[in-house]
UniProtKB/TrEMBL annotation:
Its EC number is 6.3.5.2. It catalyses: XMP + L-glutamine + ATP + H2O = GMP + L-glutamate + AMP + diphosphate + 2 H(+). ATP binds at S30, G31, G32, V33, D34, S35, S36. Homodimer. The keyword Hydrolase does not apply. It comes from Hymenobacter jeongseonensis. Keywords: ATP-binding, Glutamine amidotransferase, GMP biosynthesis, Ligase, Nucleotide-binding, Purine biosynthesis. It comes from the Bacteria. This is GMP synthase [glutamine-hydrolyzing]. Residues 2-193 form the GMPS ATP-PPase domain. The chain holds residues 194 to 511 of 511 of the full protein.
Length: 318
C-alpha cells in the first residue's frame, strides 16, 4: 500500500541513484506546495546540491516573498531569493490583454531564472514540482487546437544549459503531495496553502498593471485572506483571492464624493480546480471583509462578491 513514508524512502533512493554524485540540481521555488515538497524531497536526497531559486516577480501576495523565503531558509534549503519586481513591471508596461500579460510574465520569469541558473556551477539537472494533474492537463491543452489559458508552470527551461529534467512528484495527486510534504516536515503554513497562479496578481489586476495597483490589491487581498484564516474558513475553501477591477465607481465619505476602484472577492470550493462552485461564505463574514477593506484601503470604495461557478466562469477573471 502507498504511504507517504514509503514514497519518501523510495523517491530519495531513486533520486540518489539517478543524479550523479557531483551533479548540481536547480529548482524554481514558488512558495506553493508542489515546488516546496519537491525541494524538500530533493534536499533529503542530495542536500545542498539542490539549488532553489525563488523569484519575487512583484506579483506575489503581500509580504509573501519575505515570509516564504524565511520559511525555506528555516528548513535548511539552499535557496536564493531574487528580487526582480522592476523587471516584471517593465515587461508589463502598457499590456492589458490577459494572454499578453501571461506571456510577458512567463518570458521575464525565464530570463530571470535563466540568469540565476547560469550562476550554478556544475548544474546538470532542472527539477520541477510537476504533479500528475499538470501532466494530464498540459497534454490535453497542447493536444487540442485551442488554448483556453496558457499555463506557464510546465516547461520553459534554460535550453542552452542542456539540463536533464527530474520531476519527482510526477505520479502524485495533490492530496498525496500534501501527505508527502507533511512527512517531510513542511510547515502547515505552506502545506495547506491555497493554489496561486504563476502569473500571480498579474491576472487579478484586470487590464494594465502598475506598482500602485499591485499595492492596492495586495492590501485588499491580505484583509480577505487574513479574515478567512481568523474565522477558520480558509481551509474550507479551495482557493480565494481578490480581483482589482478596471472600473471606478462613485462613493461617499464624510461629505466628500469619492470616485475609486472596485474589488471583487472570489472564493470557490473545488476538488481539482477543473470545476468549482462559488463558496457560500456567511453574509456577516462578507460584511466584515467589505467594511475592513473599504475602511483600510484608501482607493477602494466598493467591494463585490463573485457568485459564478466554473464552468462557465473560470476561477480567475483573466
Ligand atoms: P481557471 O481560472 O482556469 O483556473 O479556472 C484554474 C486554476 O488554475 C490557476 N491558473 C493558473 N495557474 N498559471 C498558473 O500557474 C496561469 O496562467 C493560471 N491561470 C489560472 C487558477 O489560479 C486556478 O487555481
Amino acid at each position: 500500500t502507498w504511504t507517504p513514508d514509503h514514497f519518501v524512502d523510495s523517491a530519495v533512493l531513486a533520486l540518489q541513484h539517478t543524479i550523479g554524485p557531483d551533479d548540481q540540481v536547480i529548482l524554481g521555488l514558488s512558495g506553493g506546495v508542489d515546488s516546496s515538497v519537491a525541494a524538500l524531497l530533493l534536499h533529503r536526497a542530495i542536500g545542498p546540491r539542490l539549488h532553489g531559486i525563488f523569484v519575487d516577480n512583484g506579483l506575489l501576495r503581500k509580504d509573501e516573498f519575505e515570509t516564504v523565503l524565511k520559511a525555506y531558509e528555516g528548513l535548511g534549503l539552499n535557496v536564493t531569493g531574487v528580487r526582480a519586481a522592476p523587471e516584471f513591471y517593465a515587461a508589463l508596461t502598457g499590456l492589458s490583454d490577459p494572454e499578453a500579460k501571461r506571456k510577458a510574465i512567463g518570458r521575464t520569469f525565464i530570463e530571470v531564472f535563466d540568469r540565476e541558473a547560469h550562476k550554478v556551477e556544475g548544474a546538470a539537472w532542472l527539477a520541477q514540482g510537476t504533479i500528475y494533474p499538470d501532466v494530464i492537463e498540459s497534454v490535453s491543452v497542447h493536444g487540442s487546437s485551442v488554448t483556453i489559458k496558457s499555463h506557464h508552470n510546465v516547461g520553459g527551461l534554460p535550453d542552452d544549459m542542456n539540463l536533464k529534467v527530474v520531476e519527482p512528484l510526477r505520479m502524485l495527486f495533490k492530496d498525496e503531495v500534501r501527505e508527502v510534504g507533511a512527512a517531510l516536515g513542511l510547515p502547515g503554513e505552506i502545506l495547506n496553502r491555497h493554489p496561486f497562479p504563476g502569473p500571480g496578481l498579474g491576472i487579478r489586476i484586470l487590464g494594465d498593471i502598475t506598482p500602485e495597483k499591485v499595492d492596492l490589491l495586495q492590501r485588499a487581498d491580505a484583509v480577505f485572506i487574513n479574515l478567512l484564516k481568523e474565522h477558520d474558513l480558509y481551509s474550507h475553501v479551495w482557493q480565494a483571492g481578490a480581483m482589482l477591477l478596471p472600473v471606478q465607481s462613485v462613493g461617499v465619505m464624510g461629505d466628500e464624493r469619492t470616485y475609486e476602484r472596485v474589488v471583487a472577492l472570489r472564493a470557490v470550493t473545488s476538488v481539482d480546480g477543473m470545476t468549482a462552485d462559488w463558496a457560500h461564505l456567511p453574509y456577516e463574514f462578507l460584511a466584515e471583509v467589505s467594511n475592513k477593506i473599504i475602511n483600510q484601503v484608501r482607493g477602494i470604495n466598493r467591494v463585490v462578491y463573485d457568485i459564478s461557478s466554473k464552468p462557465p466562469a473560470t476561477i480567475e477573471w483573466e
